[in-house]
TrEMBL record, chain B:
It is found in: Cell membrane. It is a peripheral membrane protein. This is ABC transporter ATP-binding protein. CDD domains: ABC_DR_subfamily_A. PROSITE patterns: ABC_TRANSPORTER_2 (PS50893). Its main location: membrane. Keywords: Antibiotic resistance, ATP-binding, Nucleotide-binding, Transport.
Length: 556, 257
């Protein structure tokens, strides 16, 4: 049975896009090289032991984050097998087994085998401990990876779970933006690492208690002749691995409750039509008002959208908190709100991909101005959702740190980034849209489409389009007139929001059926609808179609 | 508009996917007030043809007209006259049925009071009002409920022509009768309905016209009597035109063991 599933997995892999996969394999090869480099060049046995604990921890962290950060669905989804007459637990365990058969895990195994080399050089007898040690560690690391991935998917079924996932994502994003602050000292020391090891210090102490270090400690104990301690470390590792495998198998088993588990409380903002609720609304009685209302509800209630939106706020908060105590970077603390605007663009740049085939409503409901209302309404909704939080955050950080000099710069920055950002996110949502698993079939946290192309474009385009206001803020700030930058920021932001939104709705209006085709049919068919040597928008669209990994609407 | 303008006209609709002709010059003409059943085996090109007829999929060749308005050169006029129910597509999943209809009505330019009154009535008639009182989201609807709310979105702006892809699939018999009553009222009032289905008995009982489509081509099109001709049932006609694979004496014997 396991063999059958593994063959199925490779068959499916053979039919899917490979961009992200190749990147993952490249990183694993790099990691493998570094691991053995450290193992072979370590100055002494103790240094090598130190380094292995560090390297193993990094492997575990990479396996925990990698599959979640990388977009794309799991290859074998447990629902495929829900109807087989198999015990659910057994199926979960079998699916876990298939995870070990791939290039990434194979490379990892070879890397972890550096422990055997270490044992050989300290005391060949310690191999008795090292071999089961690194095998157990391998099982632990791969299971942990699956556990984190599925736990996040399971979390998407409750509001609290989604919130926890948002905090995790916020931390990851903050780490990507400013984590190098913390890593930098360690990084600059890397060159001397293979000479001196970690030395005495907090890092070494923390590493020593991590389970990824236990096999190393077992080898050290065996080499020192205390076989009891070695057996204890190894036993603890085996117990932990067993527990992890058990929990992961349960999480990998197909969910059997109905797709539509009903909540006990009303969804946020619900006013049942038949319940005789208030007959008025704060939103205007127009197509634009209708779209804003729909979008606000979807952002509040959809865990997949909520995750992206709230993660940008959490990330900004963490960046503010991380930079605050630092001498070098506390300059950035008041700008948390501006950073939230920046991340918002990255998080919302695939809205039509998010909606999936629901775009058919916009196609068959096309009327004079309806597409314009749809694009403008989405722009308004994301601003309504994120501007208050971002403003509050920056205000709080300025007041708490007493950096009142930052007021004009923060206001300018928020005005321009939110303006440019709301236009850019819609333009990318239309032109570079990338469908994921269709909304009614989503299970895992990254079932929404791949958006790497949008992210890279936004990273470049946002600063370029905001350049007038940013330059004005820098030069007027230096000449002692920072407040004069505020009108420039407002104008820059408003113009960009208007202009980019206009390009977006005109493009969408002209290509409604093509947009539907893009979501409903495969990459190859979508590519045929875009001229090869067309406008810059056509080229952008081709880049996005070709560059983003393909997800089938049903998740295979 | 003269009475002899067809309600829905498909003119030589053609679409090729990856070298396969999903629709190969599909032409149909549906007179006003008619109810047409579009039948065909799985993969015959029913959904592809209907998608091109309602503006969801751009044809490689040919066009479609709704009461004389061309879907591809004058989409707004044509789409105002059309009500569409596609099969198996997503909706704004995190709205309740009522919120979806409220949004949809206002987007289609209905006055809020009118949209609200019609939405309430549709929810009641389609028996979705209980779910609405509990604020059940579309994402939590069953397959049959999804069909029904989809039908409500197709009806809300009082279109002249309804195009429904597999409207009876997953709908329980009681709701099916309600659906039939709605469609009959619609055609009695001069509206035109096109439904696709692969259930012959249903089409035979419900519609007055039928078109048979297979391998992307229209094999027969006309009134039920004309298409059926000398055959006893529509199924016989269908099998005669499309061809059937009989299960031979020696095949699948293990199923009886």
């Amino acid at each position: 049975m396991a063999g059958l599933l593994i063959r199925l997995k490779f068959t499916l892999l053979g039919h899917s896009a490979t961009g992200m996969r190749l990147l993952g394999i490249a990183l694993a090869v790099l990691g493998l090289g570094l691991t053995w480099f450290f193992a072979l060049t370590a100055g002494s046995d103790d240094v090598r032991a130190d380094l292995l604990t560090l390297v193993f921890a990094v492997w575990a962290a990479a396996w925990m984050l990698g599959p979640t950060v990388a977009n794309g669905t799991g290859v074998l989804r447990s629902q495929y097998f829900a109807l087989l007459p198999l015990d659910r637990r057994r199926l979960g365990a079998l699916l876990l087994v298939t995870m070990f058969f791939d290039i990434g895990p194979a490379l990892t195994l070879v890397a972890l085998a550096a422990l055997a080399w270490h044992a050989l050089s300290v005391d060949p007898a310690a191999l008795l401990v090292a071999v089961p040690g690194f095998l157990l560690l391998w099982v632990l690391v791969i299971s942990l990876s699956r556990l984190v991935f599925r736990a996040l998917g399971a979390a998407m079924h409750s509001r609290l779970g989604m919130e926890i996932a948002s905090v995790q994502w916020g931390l990851i994003l903050a780490g990507i933006f400013f984590g190098w602050m913390a890593v930098q000292p360690a990084f600059s020391a890397t060159l001397s690492l293979s000479e001196n090891g970690l030395g005495e210090g907090a890092v070494g102490t923390v590493l020593a208690v991590l389970p990824t270090s236990w096999p190393v400690l077992a080898v050290q104990a065996a080499a020192a002749g205390s076989w009891g301690a070695a057996a204890a470390w190894l036993g603890a590792l085996a117990l932990l691995t067993g527990a992890l495998v058990a929990v992961t198998s349960v999480l990998l088993a197909p969910r059997v409750e109905a797709r539509g588990v009903r909540r006990r409380s009303r969804p946020l903002g619900a006013r049942p039509l038949t319940g005789g609720g208030p007959g008025f609304s704060l939103l205007p009685d127009t197509p634009l008002g209708a779209v804003v209302g729909k979008e606000l509800r979807q952002w509040w209630r959809d865990p997949w959208r909520g995750l992206e939106l709230r993660a940008s706020l959490w990330a900004a908060l963490f960046i503010g908190l991380l930079t605050w105590p630092s001498d070098q970077f506390s300059f950035f603390t008041p700008f948390a709100g501006v950073i939230a605007a920046f991340i918002m663009v990255l998080a919302t740049a695939n809205m039509y991909g998010h909606d999936g085939t629901a775009v058919w409503l916009s196609v068959v409901g096309q009327d004079r101005g309806s597409v314009r209302a749809d694009v403008r309404g989405r722009q308004v909704a994301i601003l309504l959702l994120i501007v208050p939080g971002a403003t509050l955050m920056s205000t709080a950080f300025i007041l708490a740190t007493g950096s009142h000099w930052a007021w004009p710069l923060v206001i300018t920055g928020m005005a321009v980034f939110f303006g440019v950002g709301s236009g850019l996110s819609l333009l990318l949502s239309v032109v570079a849209l990338s469908p994921g698993v269709d909304p009614q079939l989503r299970v895992d946290a990254n079932d929404t489409g791949d958006n790497q192309v949008q992210v890279w474009i936004a990273l470049v385009a946002l600063p370029v389009l905001s350049a007038p206001a940013v330059l004005a803020a820098v030069f007027l700030g230096l000449s002692g007139l920072p407040w004069l930058a505020v009108p420039v920021g407002l104008l820059n932001g408003a113009l960009a929001a208007w202009w980019l939104g206009r390009i977006a709705y005109r493009r969408l209006e002209a290509r409604l059926p093509e947009t539907f085709t893009r979501i409903r049919y495969s990459k190859a068919i979508a590519l045929r609808t875009v001229p090869e040597d067309g406008s810059w928008l056509d080229r952008l669209e081709r880049t996005a179609i070709a560059g983003n990994a393909e997800t089938r609407p049903t998740g295979s | 508009m003269s009475d002899d303008v067809p309600a829905l006209e498909l003119v030589g609709l053609t679409k090729t996917f990856n070298g396969t002709r999903a629709a190969d010059g599909v032409s149909l003409s549906v007179p006003r007030g008619a109810m047409l059943g579009l039948v065909g085996p799985n993969g015959a090109g029913k959904t592809t043809s209907l998608s091109m007829a309602v503006g969801l999929l751009r044809p490689d060749g040919g066009t479609a007209r709704v009461l004389g308005s061309d879907v591809w050169s004058d989409p707004i006029a044509a789409k105002r006259l059309l009500g569409v129910l596609p099969d198996g597509l997503a909706l704004p999943e995190r709205l309740t049925g009522g919120e979806l209809l409220d949004y949809w009505g206002r987007l289609r330019g209905l006055d809020r009071g009118v949209a609200r009154a019609r939405a309430e009535e549709l929810l009641r008639v389609l028996e979705l009002d209980g779910a609405e009182e509990d604020s059940v989201l579309v994402a939590e609807y069953s397959t049959g409920m999804r069909k029904k709310i989809g039908l409500a979105t197709a009806l809300l702006h009082a279109p002249k022509v309804l195009v429904l892809d597999e409207p009876y699939e997953a709908v329980d018999p009681v709701s099916g009768r309600v659906l039939t009553a709605i469609l009959r009222r619609f055609t009695d009032g001069g509206g035109t309905v096109v439904i696709s289905s692969h259930v012959m008995a249903l089409v035979e009982q419900l519609t007055d016209r039928v078109a048979i489509i297979a391998r992307g081509r229209v094999l027969a099109d006309g009134t039920l009597e004309d298409v059926r001709g000398a055959d006893a049932t529509l199924e016989d006609t269908f099998v005669r035109l499309v061809g059937a694979r009989e299960v031979g004496e020696g095949e699948l014997t293990w199923l009886a063991s």
